[in-house]
Predict the structure.
Amino acid sequence: MVKKIILWSIIAIILTSIFQNFHYNNNYVVNYSNFLSDVQKGKIREVMIDGKEMHVIEKNNNKYSTYLPINDPKLLDHLIQKHVKIIGKKPEEMNFFVSIFISWFPMILLALIWIFFLRQIQLGAGKGAMSFGKSKAKMFKKDEIKITFADVAGCDEAKEEVKELVDYLKEPKKFKKLGGKIPKGLLMIGPPGTGKTLLAKAISGEARVPFFLISGSDFVEMFVGVGASRVRDMFENSRKSSPCIIFIDEIDAVGRKRGTGLGGGNDEREQTLNQILVEMDGFDKNQGVILLAATNRPDVLDPALLRPGRFDRQVFVPLPDIKGREQILNVHIKNISIDKNFNSSIIARGTPGFSGADLANLVNEAALCAIRNKHDFVYMKDFEQAKDKIMMGAERKSMIMTEKEKEYTAYHEAGHVIVGKLVPKHDPVHKATIIPRGRALGVTFFLPKKDHLSIDKQKIESKISTLYGGRLAEEIIYGKDHVSTGASNDIKLATSLARNMVTKWGFSKKLGPLLYQNEEEEFFLGQTTSKISHFSNKTEEIIDREIKSIIDINYKRAKRILKENIDILHAMKDALMKYETINYTQINCLMNRKLLS
Ligand code: ADP
Ligand code: ZN
């Protein structure tokens, strides 16, 4: 409606201006000197003066226009002298409104736009007829979702953890009566494409309850209050269909820590998040609604979201290991006509770092290759071809690894493990894996026997050695010039440990038990104030030298350990290549130079 008004006024203005130009330019134009000479010659009968423009009628009824170059005061005398009829023009009246309109037009336009947006916002907040503040959640009815747990493969732990929800959703009242305690919210954590959405859908498919699907980014709008109103709307709808499931994908889009960035925070996002928290707290009255959410970055979430009574239960949905990949492939090849000689474990072996979605894509791509190759069935060959195609196009963002990267990572992690096992007082190795996690290609997990409140010097030095184990293994195997960049985090950690030993924990003989800390990174109104040093350049030099010497000693120790046990290094690499994750029993076996069963 408002849009139409704006449109029509623009058209009207264009038309009037065209019409006016048309009207004036109709006449034949003659220059001023010719006009003067015509007057002189007595050819002119009549002149209508309209500002600087004059419409002239000759005695022989010819008409033309001319323009006054300057205000010529003598002109009138001239004309009177030659008995020319002079006609003035009535000041413009008809165009008065048009001119007002033109001069006010920008203002009017702004006002109209303003009104337009105001209306939208009010509709948003007040749940009017328009869909601005309505939840964008997509609703699947009770029997619309056909996905069951059988369709979700390779994440058995996660599946086990959510099974309880199905029992609850089937009969909430009974479950409560029996004393079952149900989380209000469950957060699924894992990289993209690992099947979080799929798992959520499977819960609803198994329990046969409605499913609301929404992405965190759907809440976020330009206008304050819209997101919150959408949250309210979504919960209201879901309450009507309870028991049911709400699934918020990418919750980090709304759930980021509040109040970061001093001063101008993002009001809209914070209001939306607050509304989610409010709705979750009021959950008792809406029994039977379970909120599931997915994220890849639990570290950026606002702590309030993770508090008891909210998303207090967390389920990890990691990238699948070899066995998981095999199972996922088996799920997806059911939909294609597969050659009977197809072996999913071979494909699983060759697809390290693939997520469930990557594997689904691989199967699909292989089927397309088979069609292109005019095969009656999808063969291993087609899979190989499809894999090459996917690996070539894979962005670094996904964690798909090449065989070479896999080997580098296997040596790297084996290096950490072996050093960690052979230095004194190190935390026991729990397991090592070359399945990517976060930004790391592989991880070695150490589990402390108990929480220690303080750690001694020997223990820290062991840790530094172990941190360098990864990089050193790469160096020993591939040579100094071929180490990967995968150790940057290790180096950072080792360096900061060494620095703390010298400057904070008083482990340096030369410097003694004093605090040598720069007061840095003080956060003041959004700006890091400059470093304030309390000690001299010379002290600083000594600190650097002490750090370097601690690192040198431990670096050399790690190198010696690895060189002495290079046979274990190779064996452990082979084991990692084969199993991708090795646990502490397997690690102990390898350390004792025994064959893995
Ligand atoms: P996420 O929500 O974790 O990003 P999705 O659940 O959207 O991942 O997964 C996308 C697709 O990938 C699914 O529809 C399914 O086809 C496939 N997929 C992912 N994980 C699995 C799995 N564990 N088992 C079977 N298929 C999977
Ligand atoms: Zn490392």
Q: What stands out?
A: Residues 126-130, 520-530 have pLDDT under 50 and may be disordered.
